[in-house]
Amino acid sequence: MLTRFAPSPTGFLHLGNIRTALLCWLYARKTGGNFLLRIDDTDTERSKPEYVDAIKEDLTWMGLQWDAIAFQSERFDIYHAAVEKLKAAGRFYPCYETPEELEVKRKMLLSRGKPPIYDRAALKLTDAQKAQYEAEGKTPHWRFKLREGEIRWQDEIHGEMQFEGANLSDPILIRENGLYTYMLPSAVDDVELGVTHVLRGEDHISNTAIQIQLFEALGGDIPNFAHNALIKTREGKLSKRKGDSAIHHLREKGIEPMTIASFLAKLGSSDPIEPQKSLQTLIDSFDIQKFSRSSTLYDMEDLDRLNPKILHLYDFSDVEVRLQELGLTRVDVEFWEAVKGNIETLAEVVEWWRICKEPLTPEIEDAAFARDAAALLPEGPWTAETWGHWVESIKAQTGRKGKALFMPLRKALTGMEHGPELKVMLPLIGRERALARLNGQTA
Ligand code: GLU
């Protein structure tokens, strides 16, 4: 069993791409198969090495380790050989129409209510006419000649699929600039590299019909296919929001890889989306049959909402190294357990630590009130209830309530007007430091 994730390195991975990668990876891990990363870089003009690096970085960050990697740009000889095979079988022919001419043909067919299928005019060209075009400096693009007849496959998500060859346009496999389109190298590699399960977005469904004919023409085994429904934000298709949904962007804003994995592994399936701490849980519950063929709507905020729940699941040992990388070398289990339920991103721990454990200058707006509050600080040991008891006693003694009560306490204890919940922070700040800060000292 071999699945493959086949990104083109012409941009950054976004949520839609990583979902395909994740589902391919889960499928392979679940069935004891392998996961191939295939870099679709036949478009040598648009492909960039920095995008290859970014793809690898994103997959690694997500924990989606590949078992093998292949670069299409290193495999042109194999595609050329396939082309020769198609030519010998009379399934590959040169065409000389310009894009404008093709557009006119397309529009004429559409205006007559007909599907815009290429009319195969190029098949009727004589050798003399072709020679004439070449003499005029025209270079051909090359099409694959489809055969008439039914094309069927059993899609693992869409069920029974059926196309008629005569209703499809002969696809262009090589453009006039000599570059391969995606169609042939992908099919050749699926055969040559032994891919058994092709899982990809449903925007490839009609390509699959064509590629099945390519598999047959090349004499290769036809893999199993599963086309997952596309995911859409309420604002429209994902690709339009590439910036927001780019994986590196989500990483930079503090979204956990397991937030993305927990979300995408279940989105559009019959399982509920629940926070999971490890990919193993997602492997165990993975089943391609659970995925629906209808497209799924989601909000970018769904990830923001799930992220704190993921952080909440982490034990100190899960985050210790990452906290050290954030410069927090002295955070311990106790501190982590106290704050983890109150943060939205891991980086927020830095602020908690600074406020609770490092000296800061309090902001005292009413010294008498702060002194009264200091005098009322309960004796230790402090718990989550300490704040409530303390506030009650300040209320009783000073008659203050609401903002007039809380804001001066916050400014005195944290030096700021906004920040994490005082109730949780107070025991972490501790009695000694709280007392000093309320008395106006840097502590
Ligand atoms: N490079 C193609 C893409 O990014 C791969 C599609 C496929 O999985 O076959 O759309």
Task: Describe what you observe in this structure.
With 443 residues, the chain is of the alpha/beta class. It has 5 domains: 2-77 and 182-231, HUPs (Rossmann fold, 3-Layer(aba) Sandwich), CATH 3.40.50.620; 90-174, Glutamyl-tRNA Synthetase, Domain 3 (Glutamyl-tRNA Synthetase, domain 3); 236-313, Glutamyl-trna Synthetase, Domain 2 (Glutamyl-tRNA Synthetase, domain 2); 316-357; 367-438, Orthogonal Bundle (Arc Repressor Mutant, subunit A), CATH 1.10.10. It has 20 helices and 13 strands. 32% of the residues are buried. The mean pLDDT is 95. Residues 6-8, 40, 182, 186, 200, 204 line the site of glutamic acid (GLU).
Structural features:
Rossmann fold; 3-stranded parallel β-sheet; 47% helix; binds glutamic acid; 13 strands; 443 residues; Glutamyl-tRNA Synthetase, domain 2; single chain; alpha/beta; Glutamyl-tRNA Synthetase, domain 3; 3-stranded antiparallel β-sheet
First and last CA, distance: 62 Å
Which percent range fits the helix content? 40-55%
Tally of separate domains: 5
Indicate the proportion of strand residues: 5-15%
CATH class of the largest domain: Alpha Beta
CATH superfamily of the largest domain: HUPs
Q: Give the mean pLDDT.
A: 95
Give the ligands present. glutamic acid
With helices defined by DSSP (H or I, 4 residues minimum), what is the helix count?
A: 20
* Rg, nearest Å: 31 Å
Task: Provide the structure class.
Answer: alpha/beta
What is this entry, summarized?
With 443 residues, this protein is of the alpha/beta class. The chain has 5 domains: 2-77 and 182-231, Rossmann fold (3-Layer(aba) Sandwich), CATH 3.40.50.620; 90-174, Alpha-Beta Complex (Glutamyl-tRNA Synthetase, domain 3), CATH 3.90.800.10; 236-313, Glutamyl-trna Synthetase, Domain 2 (Glutamyl-tRNA Synthetase, domain 2), CATH 1.10.1160; 316-357; 367-438, Arc Repressor Mutant, subunit A (Orthogonal Bundle), CATH 1.10.10.
